[in-house]
Amino acid sequence: MNAVFNIELYKLLADWNPMHFEDPTMGDHEIYDCMDLIHQKKSREETIEGIQSIYRYAFDSAPAEADVNRVLDRVELLNQTCEL
């Protein structure tokens, strides 16, 4: 596992802040769950559904599929720059 990738992935997901918290650290648990899901390297569709489920479970609301898709595009770019 690449430590640089994990740090940058955390930052990316924290900046995303799909629940629009004033204090983005309120979603830390969900960020770590999303990181774990991303590391499982499931299909894009399964990953999108998984991320939506994480937020739906915690907050009774989930980010839109298009929003999750955009953040996963950024994760892919990050993956390429961190040379996993």
From TrEMBL:
It holds the Pfam family DUF1871. InterPro entries: Apc36109-like_dom_sf, DUF1871. This is DUF1871 family protein.
